[in-house]
Amino acid sequence: MSTITTTYRAPVPSPSAWRHTTRGAIAAWHCRIAYTTAWFVRAELLLGVLAGASLLVAVRAGALSAPEAQGTALLVLLCRLAAYAAGRRAFVTSEGAAFFKCLVRSTALAALAGTALALAWPAMAAPLPRAASLVLGSSVVSILLRWTTRGLIRRGRLVEDCLILGTTEKATRFFDDLRAAQAGAVAPVANGSLDGSCIVEFEHLRRLAQQGSDSRLVVVEPPEDSQELHEVLLDCKVRGMAVEQAMDAYERLAGRVWVEGLRPEWIVYGRGFRRPASHRAVKRALDLVAAVVLLSVTFPLLLLVALLVKLESPGPALFAQERVGENGRTFVLYKFRSMRSDAEAQSGPVWAGENDARITPLGKVLRKCRLDELPQIWNVLRGEMSFVGPRPERPYFVDLLRQQIPYYDLRHYVTPGITGWAQVSYPYGASIEDAYQKLQYDLYYGKHMSLRFDIEVLVKTVSVVLMGRGAR
């Protein structure tokens, strides 16, 4: 997690001044970036090690039996996962009532997880007083982590100065897009003007490097005559300053690919976007096993939902719709019907709105809990979909989006999924702009696709479902 805020308060030069900078100078946006992901991981790992050590001591001392210790350890883990599901970022960024809401949500999830654990494995269940203290203790840990993190940021720790360099309108859009992508990610590290661009001389960059500055330089688009700038950046690089291209910086900070700055050579010569046969085989095997298990477990629920859909409104319980899958091949996707059977009889293909009048009352519940997606387990069994991947779109909208969004077809080189990185990272969208934003997440998934990434997406999907966020 990271955030970016402007800290430079110099007057904003006129557009002509920074579009065509004089030789030996370039437009820059001075900002600070705060990093909290590594800090959170280290802190929670340390707390986990301390908790595990305490349990081992208790077992050796005879205060706890081995099953009780295992149950306690599992409950502690569930409590921290509950905090993650409730929105770990929000524990740092939220203020007042919003923070309290996150805390209550986390505590409720932890209590629910503890209850489920006690019912599933009574022998491992902790006594009620101990379980209650662990749940409340997890909330205290969240408060302490929030207080410590915000304090470190205020003292200049976990932050990095950054100069975004560029001479065109694209640099401005990069700056704005990066700020928008990081809005609310963590607490602001400083307050400043929203437009902090200024003209920076190359000599100033040299002085920063000579002084041993740890500032990061992000180059969006160098000027046409960029030889002198490259010499300066080389000097900065060898003197220890971090120098980064805009595409790499955006991907690292925002967790998505900056489509506006995307060039084919960035994909061709960069890392990622590889799909080894071994990975595809393992992922397919796991999809098959998970689909069989999930279908067996949810079969009674599938019958119940189908019956309720039939009883609520006329029409079939299952809704079949053509979608575009891997390599552009079309297939039939199945869902429980959540709209009236004549939803598009007059309008033709249209995106569903957030409060779409065509959605039935039961359909709203199904879409909120994602139960309408359960029949797609059949698509997974058939090999047309995976559990994790870009959401497949209808051919009508694919043809439309191909014309409006560059590189849109790149998402079709990956097997589509029931859930995906875009679905857990971006709210429900029903416009070309939303499709553009989601494409950036889909491309990020395509570049970094791995089993570990799939697990992260599935965990976040559970969080989205439990919290009822992003109804489609």
Task: Explain what the structure shows.
With 472 residues, the protein is an alpha/beta fold. It has 3 domains: 2-35 and 158-254, no CATH class; 38-154, no CATH class; 277-467, no CATH class. 54% of the residues lie in helices and 12% in strands. The protein contains 17 helices and 10 strands. It has helices at 15-19, 37-60, 66-93, 97-120, 128-154, 169-181, 202-210, 227-238, 246-254, 264-269, 277-312, 361-369, 376-381, 395-404, 421-425, 432-448, 451-467; strands at residues 2-6, 25-35, 159-166, 197-201, 216-221, 242-245, 318-324, 330-336, 386-388, 417-419. The strands form 3 sheets. Strands 1, 2, 3, 4, 5 and 6 form a 6-stranded mixed sheet that branches. Strands 7-8 form a two-stranded antiparallel sheet. Helix 2 runs antiparallel to helix 3, helix 3 (66-93) runs antiparallel to helix 4 (97-120) and helix 3 runs parallel beside helix 5. The longest helix is centred in the middle third of the chain and has 36 residues, at 277-312. It is globular and about 75 Å long. The model is unreliable at 1-20 and 183-195 (pLDDT under 50).
Give the helices and strands, then pairings.
Layout: E1 2-6, H1 15-19, E2 25-35, H2 37-60, H3 66-93, H4 97-120, H5 128-154, E3 159-166, H6 169-181, E4 197-201, H7 202-210, E5 216-221, H8 227-238, E6 242-245, H9 246-254, H10 264-269, H11 277-312, E7 318-324, E8 330-336, H12 361-369, H13 376-381, E9 386-388, H14 395-404, E10 417-419, H15 421-425, H16 432-448, H17 451-467
Parallel strand pairs: 3-5, 5-6, 9-10
Antiparallel strand pairs: 1-2, 2-3, 2-4, 7-8
